[in-house]
């Protein structure tokens, strides 16, 4: 007997690798994401195809080749430039639609979980912190996926296409790239570890700031208590100063 499908609130996120968490969150849009990757590969191909075609045109002109080769190269350039616009629209629709659906489902799961928490938990945790988790943290996940997909897929397609062209046209330069690319990847990994720590500290500061703003909103109706309002403002200003210093 097949087990019932796992719900978002039943999944164990703590201690899980972020990649596995993203795979789980996008489990309903795997086909759309695969289509987005395929469309992006075709859409981004002019970046590494245009230099190759331009070189072919220059070789034809310098070597006085047949005029048919010029028309063929020009037709290829026009074709890949014309199809770039509709493919970009299709890519945005597939990827960004999947990201929006993931964000909506994640926010809904977080709101459901907050309703299931005890009254004691809500009395200990500020409402501003919970609001920051539902609004800002989910938005950060969406932006991270969008930016990583755009940059990562672009780098991967250019690297793959460039290596294939170099291996076919000038294979003697291939060992140089096989040494430079792993070295650059190692450098990026080392820098990413430091950025992860900094971003985590910044996220905690944003949650604290949201909590301070929530306190200010609570004391705004009570204008008869200026001491409380001034104390909340000073705490809020101190939080913003710490964010600027980081």
The helicity comes to over 70%
Question: If helices are DSSP runs of H or I spanning 4 or more residues, what is the number of helices?
Answer: 9
Distance from N terminus to C terminus (CA atoms, Å) equals 54 Å
Task: Assign an overall shape.
Answer: elongated
The strand count comes to 0
Largest sheet features: none
Low-confidence stretches: none
Tell me the Rg in angstroms: 26 Å
| Proportion of residues in β-strands | under 5%
SSE sequence, one letter per element = HHHHHHHHH
User: Helix- and strand-based class?
Assistant: mainly alpha
What is the mean predicted local confidence, pLDDT? Answer: 77
Structure description:
It is a single chain. The protein has about 250 residues and is an all-alpha fold. It has a domain at about 10-135. Helix content is about 85%, strand content about 0%. It is built from 9 helices and no strands. It has helices spanning about 20-25, 30-45, 45-60, 65-80, 85-115, 120-125, 125-170, 175-220, 225-245. The longest helix is centred in the C-terminal third of the chain and has 46 residues, at about 175-220. It is elongated and about 85 Å long.
Q: Which structural traits does this protein have?
A:
single chain, mainly alpha, 9 helices, 246 residues
């Amino acid at each position: 007997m097949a087990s019932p499908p796992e719900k978002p609130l039943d999944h164990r996120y703590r201690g899980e690798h972020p990649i596995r968490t993203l795979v789980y969150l996008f489990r309903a849009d795997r086909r759309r994401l695969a289509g987005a990757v395929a469309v992006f590969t075709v859409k981004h191909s002019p970046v590494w195809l245009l230099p190759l075609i331009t070189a072919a045109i220059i070789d034809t002109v310098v070597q006085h080749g047949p005029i048919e080769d010029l028309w063929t190269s020009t037709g290829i350039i026009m074709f890949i430039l014309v199809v770039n616009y509709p493919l970009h629209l299709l890519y945005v629709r597939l990827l960004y639609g999947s990201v929006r659906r993931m964000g909506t489902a994640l926010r809904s799961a977080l709101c459901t979980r907050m309703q299931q928490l005890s009254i004691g938990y809500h009395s200990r945790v500020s409402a501003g912190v919970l609001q920051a988790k539902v609004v800002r943290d989910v938005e950060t996940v969406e932006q991270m996926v969008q930016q990583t997909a755009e940059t990562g897929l672009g780098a991967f397609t250019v690297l793959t296409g460039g290596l294939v062209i170099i291996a076919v046209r000038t294979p003697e330069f291939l060992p140089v790239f096989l040494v430079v690319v792993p070295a650059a990847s190692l450098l990026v990994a080392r820098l990413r570890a430091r950025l992860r720590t900094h971003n985590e500290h910044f996220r905690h500061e944003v949650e604290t700031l949201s909590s301070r703003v929530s306190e200010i909103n609570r004391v705004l109706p009570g204008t008869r208590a200026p001491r409380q309002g001034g104390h909340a403002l000073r705490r809020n200003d101190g939080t913003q100063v710490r964010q600027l210093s980081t």
